[in-house]
Structure prediction request, 331 residues.
Amino acid sequence: MSDSPAQARRILIVSANPLFREGLRKLYAERWGEQSATVHMLTTLEEALPALETHPDLVIVDYDDKAINREAFMSRFVAGEAPMQVMLVSLQESGQVVVYDRRTMTFAQAEHWLSNPWEG
Amino acid sequence: MNRVRIVVVDDHALFRRGLISLLEEMPEFHVVGEAANGQEALTVIERARPDIILLDINMPVLDGLQTLAAIRKKDSAQKVLMLTISQNDDDLIGAIVAGANGYVLKNAEPEMLKNTILQVYSGNSVLSPEVTARVLQAVRRSQNDRNRGLLSEREIEVLKCLARGQTTAQIASVLFISENTVKTHIRHILEKMEVNNRAEAVAKAAQMDLL
Prediction:
């Protein structure tokens, strides 16, 4: 039996700053290989909101950018149900990176998860 | 052409690592060191001896302007390109005064950054188009401030009267001073502005934005 190739992760990078966008894309490709991910890059919130409906696995948002409205983005993300991960980063400051990891689980999984929510 | 040896100094790890990946992809460049703050940078620069340093401004421990000053103390010829998100006038003018060879915003396109690095490497000074206008404004402001300091408030009042075509007697009447005092003011104005007559004084004042 041969292993089937893992499905490429779908990553959405939202930033109006090309150096940041391109740098992240390159960094990801270097670390995980070009084949491991499909990286899509957008520059504005208007472009990003519809793209969320395509359920990317990971969304990286440069949230202090003027072209990105953090509140509007987060309310759309919270209202959605897709099990995507969101990483909020800011070029204005280097202190904190906020990661939201929304997972959907069965009740049994949820019970297990509650026994140790911080595992993995 | 030898690859340009670069040190990247930025406390934003994601941005720094991504930028290094991008630069390494370009055949013109070789990143020989990186640092997360100015203090670290001084050690890395000493060891790596880069051609160019890409230096952020807002950093902990030792910020970009302090780091630039420390670099200049040791090596006045070291090429330093500020790469920052800051469009703050104090940072911009501070970097230029401290001897930065260029000032580029982080929202630059990779190709533009590449060209800027190559220009600085070749000995040119480069500013992002977005900040050029601010530098020119600051220079103009500074020149206007200097011009305004050249004459006293009273002399500027007299100059404005001259610009309106008023005679010595009219100026004396308007400003409630004697004609002799008006003449003294005018003599001082001509001396300070290094002109020969009233008409030249008015023309030069207009040029200097004093009216």
Q: What stands out?
A: The longest strand of chain A covers residues 9-14. Chain A touches chain B through 18 residues (CB under 8 Å). Residues 9-115 of chain A form a domain with the Rossmann fold fold (CATH 3.40.50.2300).
